[in-house]
Amino acid sequence: MFQRCGFADADADLQDAAYVVVGLPFDGTASFRSGSREGPDAIRLASFNFESYDFNYDLDLSDIAICDLGNMDLGADPVYAEETIKECIAFLPDRAVPIFLGGEHSIAPPIAEGLAETGSLGVLVLDAHLDLRESFGNTRYSHACASRRILEKKGIGAYASIGIRSGSKEEFSFAKEGGIPYYTSREVHERGIDDVLERAIKKMNCERIYLSIDLDAIDPAFAPAVGNPEPFGLSTWDVSRVIERVAPRAVGLDINELTPAYDHGQTALLAARLARQFIARKAKG
Ligand code: MN
Ligand code: MN
Questions:
Q1: How many Å apart are CA 188 and CA 233, to the nearest integer?
Q2: How remote is the CA of residue 161 from the centroid of ligand 2, in Å?
Q3: How far is the CA of 58 from the centre of ligand 1 (A)?
Q4: Tell me, what CATH number does 113's domain have?
């Protein structure tokens, strides 16, 4: 009689769940447009637009055990947020695949750190930005430092980013000197996502992949409601293809940087649809 207001089709209890949705409403270091703390609930609301049946994979999401734990209380202090997210990872059962709804990109380093505790982890980031700054706005926890912090975490065996088209001169030097693999949106445009993905996965050469999707990787024409929009981005089809190829071996997913105040709904809908595709693809095996 009453509809639950979590992510659509997330009706399972935690002890039975194969997938667990967690909202991480943190935007304390936003550098341009803030408001990504409203992201998780906007994605949940948008998720009710879609059929529970996914005809691509011929399965029904209502038949999959999905639990939505709701949002964590993260406050505005990045140090507190990082510690709290780490506690969350320790609390989640190992057999449930976590799907984190951001929040800004700074949610990803503590997630990667937590998931790397159970085995070496490769992190695949989709992003317009390198996010390799040592610090930004007087904090090392800034979302502009997300990939740099991920690379410093123990147990991160591999890393690659796709969709890159922005960074400081220092960040590009840092990537070059450190041999940090990144693939530009131009390469995706010119060579195709399959070619780029093939090279990225081969380079990473790891079994367990964590996928972190900064929505600004996608062109603002498709995903305008992000903190730092950057033209000449990936298409929705490109990102769908990444999920198609990576979900079977993925140990988790986050979708970050949605700022609903700048949306006419299309960015939230895309985020929800990508999360649903990830679950369906992974469940299909
Ligand atoms: Mn980012
Ligand atoms: Mn970005």
A1: 9
A2: 11
A3: 33
A4: 3.40.800.10
